[in-house]
Amino acid sequence: MPTINLSFQVIPKVPDARTYEVVDLAIEVVKKSGVKYEVGPMETTMEGELNQLLEIVKEAQQVCIDAGAERVMTMIKIDYHPKGVTMEEKIGKYRS
Question: Could you tell me the pTM of the whole model?
Answer without folding.
Answer: 0.94
